[in-house]
Amino acid sequence: MLKVNIIKAKDPAEAGKLAADIFQEVMTNNPNCVLGLATGSTPLPLYRELIAREKAGVLNFSTVRSANLDEYKGLAPDHPQSYRYFMQDNLFDHISIDPANTIVPDGLATDAEAMCAEYEKKIEAMGGVDIQLLGIGHDGHIGFNEPCDHFPVATHEVELEEITRQANKRFFDSIDDVPTAAYTMGIGTVMAARKVLLMATGKDKAEIVYKSFFGPVTPQVPASILQFHSDVTVIVDEAAASLLPL
Ligand code: GLP
Fold first, then answer.
1. What angle do CA 189, 195, 196 make, to 5 degrees?
2. Domains of the chain
C-alpha cells in the first residue's frame, strides 16, 4: 500500500490553492516555522496564493523563516536568473518575511565546500525544515539532485545535466548563458524535513511523476526516494496525474 498522499487538482491554479492550504496549516501550528522553498514555474501559483492570503490577513510571514533548495553556481544574488532574485521577485518582496530570515545557497562562494557545509549548519541552527516544497525535473531531479549512482546526502555542488540546462534555458538569452553547475541541498537534507510537499503540473511531468511514485526507489530517479519519507504529499494537476493508477 502506497503511503504517499497524492492529491489531484483540476489545474495549476487549484494546485496552488491546495498547496497553500498545507502551508497555512504548518504556519498556523508554528508561527516560527521554517519553510523549505523551491524555484521553477510550478510553485508560482502557490506563491501568488500565499501573497494573497497574507494581504487578506489570513497568513503572517513576519515570524517565519525560510531555506531555499538550490542556487546556480556563478550567479550573483541580483542576477535576474539567480534563484535568490527569483525568490525576492516572486515571493519575499511581497510578504512580510524578514530578509535576514531567508537563506539561499551563495552562488558566488569562493570556497564551495565550506559554503555548502555552512548551509547545512544554518538549516540545523534554524531547527530544521518544517515543510519542504519541491518541484520535479523531467529526469526526476529534486532541487538540483540529478540522477546518479547514489543519493547525495548533504548540500553540495553538482554538474547540471544537459536535459536540465535545456529545460531551464527558457529563462536565459541562450543555452550558453545557462550555468553548468549549481549548489543544492542533498537528498539527505530534503529527507530530514518534517514534511515534504511536491508539486507537479502539466502533461510533460506525467511520466516522471509515475516513475517517481509508482516505480522502484532508485538514485536514477532521485524523487523516488520520497516513497521512504513518512510525511509526503504530492499535488498534481489532471495533466500530470494522467498516467497514475488513481
Ligand atoms: C529546476 C529547479 C528545480 C525545479 C525544476 C522544475 O531545475 N532546480 O527545483 O523543480 O527546475 O522546474 P519547473 O517547475 O519550472 O518545471
1. 70
2. 5-187 (3.40.50.1360)
